[in-house]
Write a structure and sequence with these properties.
Layout lengths: L22 E11 L4 E10 L4 E9 L11 E9 L8 E3 L4 E7 L3 E8 L3 E9 L4 E2 L11 E15 L2 E17 L8 E9 L2 E10 L2 E11 L2 E14 L6 E10 L4 E16 L2 E12 L2 E12 H11 L5
Antiparallel strand pairs: 1-2, 1-11, 2-3, 3-4, 5-6, 6-7, 7-8, 8-10, 9-10, 10-11, 12-13, 12-19, 13-14, 14-15, 15-16, 16-17, 17-18, 18-19
Length: 314
């Protein structure tokens, strides 16, 4: 597990990943237009030992949450992985393109699927990539880094042009990622400004949802979260999170108090689990912002929860 992100880490890490079947490298960028309740992702998942690349692009708003009904959805599972390009300057068969303009910080992003969707975006980091610092995360033994940045540009959906100018999260990982790995957890981001933001990744512990790891930026100073809780309210008709509270404390003894309301969302079925992702309007230590709540469940656990809500056991 790497604990620092160097310029060469913008490239693939295939040579050091060994020959295990599930060795995986990922690159994820999020973006949003909160005024239009619109969120989006660009995601790449490469598996060099299988020779495939998965992922694509998603764009949603508050008019739909099912992947076949949202504004745009392209979720490829097993396209051929190009071997003549590196991740720092690549155009993938999924439609995603990434070019590192300033390594570790600035990236030009693109997506092409004419006539349905085109994207031209730039991500500029407002912090250094921060490593996952605790064992026992849902990412297992993989190297994993998170970074807030400003995303600017535009998304074209047919004839509709959506301007993007937001603060959002990206992450990078490489290492083992088997498809049967997930347990119930959440990946929660909130950002009001480059000086006030947080990441909280949770796990279930004795019927409570505790913060397993994360960090807080408060008044421009960053420190790891050492404790905390995620508490949610759900729509009884769908099970989706409608309101969310995050409380915690960082390594400097400072408190995190964040309250959020869902603006829109998207559900993705990802092999053995689902990701019910919400675009969230936040109050973060008294500062207004936005972010995401990725509510992740093993499929059978989600199904059991929904059957129980309907008063059925099978």
């Amino acid at each position: 597990m790497s604990t620092s992100f160097a310029p060469r880490d913008d490239d693939f890490h295939f040579a050091e990943m060994g020959d295990r079947w599930w060795m995986t490298e990922t690159s994820w960028f999020s973006f949003c237009n909160p005024e239009q309740k619109l969120g989006g992702w660009l995601y790449t998942m490469a598996r060099p030992n299988i020779g495939t690349v998965a992922g694509g692009a998603w764009v949603w708003d508050d008019t739909a949450h099912l992947p076949w009904e949202v504004l745009y959805n392209a979720n490829y599972t097993a396209l051929r992985l190009p071997r003549d390009q590196d991740l720092s300057d690549i155009r993938l068969p999924t439609g995603v393109s990434i070019r590192a303009v300033e390594r570790t910080r600035v990236y030009d992003l693109g997506f092409e699927d004419d006539p349905h969707c085109r994207m031209s975006l730039r991500f500029e980091g407002v912090m250094a990539p921060r490593p996952l610092r605790k064992a026992g995360s849902p990412f297992g033994g993989a190297s994993h880094f998170d970074q807030f940045g400003r995303v600017t540009g535009e998304v074209r959906l047919g004839d509709r042009v959506v301007p993007i100018d937001c603060l959002a999260m990206r992450d990078r990982s490489w290492g083992p990622r088997p498809e049967h790995r997930p347990k119930r957890s959440a990946y929660v981001t909130g950002v009001a400004s480059p000086r006030d933001a947080f990441l909280a990744v949770t796990r279930w512990e004795d019927e409570r949802e505790v913060i397993a790891y994360g960090f807080m930026i408060r008044d421009g100073e960053t420190a790891d979260l050492v404790s905390g809780m995620r508490e949610v309210e759900r729509d009884p008709a769908t099970g989706f999170v409608t309101r969310i509270g995050i409380t915690g404390q960082d390594a400097l003894g400072r408190r995190l108090e964040a309250e959020g309301t869902r603006l829109s969302g998207l559900v993705i079925n990802r092999h053995s689990f689902i990701d019910s992702n919400g675009l969230i309007a936040w109050s973060i230590n008294g500062h207004e912002g936005h972010g995401e709540d990725q509510d992740m469940w093993p499929i059978h656990d989600w199904a059991a929860m929904r059957r129980a809500a309907r008063g059925r056991t099978a």
